[in-house]
Amino acid sequence: MSTLVCFHAHPDDEALSTGGLMAKAAAAGHRVILVTATRGEQGEPQPGVLAEGEELWRRRVEELAESAEILGAEPPRFLDYEDSGMMDEPENDNPACFWQADVEEAAQRLAVILTEVDANVLTIYDDHGLYGHPDHIQVHRVGLRAAELVGIGNVYEATVNRERALESIGEMAAEMEADGVEAPSVDDFGEFGVTESDLAFTIDVTDQLDAKRAAMAVHRSQISDQSFFLYLPPDRFAKVFANEWYAVPGKTDTGGPVLTELLPGF
Question: pTM of the full predicted structure?
């Protein structure tokens, strides 16, 4: 049995980025650990979800625990930083936020967890944090350093196949607009993910799609049933989410991803 640690920035990132891998590893008998840098304090709650006076972060922690259970992970662990908000927002200047954290100090916090659980495989994000979010970028930096401190060689960057993702988003956006549903624009995604030629591995998570979708759905404060993620009918959802992609830190021009059951290190 191996121990997989998935390191994420906020609640709901785990379901979107590594939910299939987590569920697949758990089903194969491996130990799955979820670590989140923040509690998602700066998220934008869906209308009518929070009770009067309810703090968003408390709801997001509850949602994260539900998601972890669905995906077969142990109860979530936190690094106890605050959400930094989107890039160039005032929240970036909060001294308690993850973006302002000293990388070495934050890496030490993560290293304690990695050592405690005897981690074999660690997932982080690519070096631009999938889409440029400061907390995601910091996950990359802190995760790499923590792996170095502990001596974990199996470190993988959760990312997306940029070309395929943008193609799927464009197709679905047209359908959503035809149905009168607000749709994302491919122009909003910028440098989203990485090019196919820089990917190392593809994980087929078709058998885990029900768990992945259910994990997304419990993040009710952030993901409505009319969102791009949950609006998709099953066949379209499968087209978008049936694969999860991973890169290897520092390695580019791989020639494209290799399809593998689980990442090396299991």
Answer: 0.93
